[in-house]
Design brief:
alpha+beta, Umud Fragment, subunit A, 2 domains, eight-stranded antiparallel sheet, 3 helices, elongated
Length: about 200
């Protein structure tokens, strides 16, 4: 009996941890999407890949962290995030790989693109891609697909919350029933004691 209670408690803790992790993941993705990459913590910013230009390194929907670095630290082969200024890249955040660096400009290119980008100035660089966020990437891709998101994330999560609340209500009802049973038993015991006391009193008389 005690072992069963311990297992139930452990499973409940695991379930609560999973719920918290899911809430944090979905919250981070939602914040990133709705703020337009404007959140910067300790020099790190989270981005989502929006095109196939960096295949096979990054797929559409992949999320990664970019670190703000001094331009002098950049080298050929680094993947950087920059604000585009010309052509189809104007006013767009671009993540491409450095292929050449001069004293005043940087030349980048999408791995999957046939041609290199227009040269960018140092002040256009927003940061250097440092790590891909694999778990967040999975959920980001799910959120981009409405059917998959509702099937794999939303419905199971909603059911988990529903059964959790239902379990709490059931536990509360059980506790109330136990308390009512205890009160009833106590009243019965008091009644029996009163009867015994009355009988003893009659005998004495």
């Amino acid at each position: 009996m005690m072992l069963g209670k311990k297992i139930k408690t452990i499973l409940k803790i695991i379930k609560n941890i999973i719920v918290v992790i899911l809430i944090l993941i979905l919250g981070l993705i939602a914040i990133q999407k709705f703020t337009g990459n404007n959140i910067n913590l300790f020099g790190y910013t989270m981005y989502t890949v929006g095109s196939e230009s960096m295949l096979p390194e990054y797929e559409i929907g992949d999320m990664f962290l970019s670190k703000k670095v001094d331009v002098s630290e950049l080298k050929v082969g680094d993947d950087i995030v920059y604000m585009g200024k010309v052509g189809t890249y104007a006013n767009k955040i671009i993540t491409h790989r450095i292929i050449r660096i001069s004293k005043e400009r940087i030349i980048t290119k999408g791995i999957n693109n046939p041609v290199e980008d227009a040269p960018i100035e140092f002040n256009q660089v927003l940061g250097k891609a440092v790590i891909r966020l694999y778990l967040l990437s999975i959920f980001s891709k799910l959120m981009n697909n409405s059917v998959l998101f509702y099937t794999v994330v939303f419905v199971p999560f909603a059911l988990l919350i529903f059964f959790d609340i239902k379990g709490m209500i059931d536990d509360k009802n059980k506790l109330e029933n136990i308390n009512e049973s205890d009160v009833s038993a106590n009243n019965q015991n008091v009644s029996i004691a009163d009867e015994e006391q009355a009988i003893n009193k009659e005998k004495k008389e």
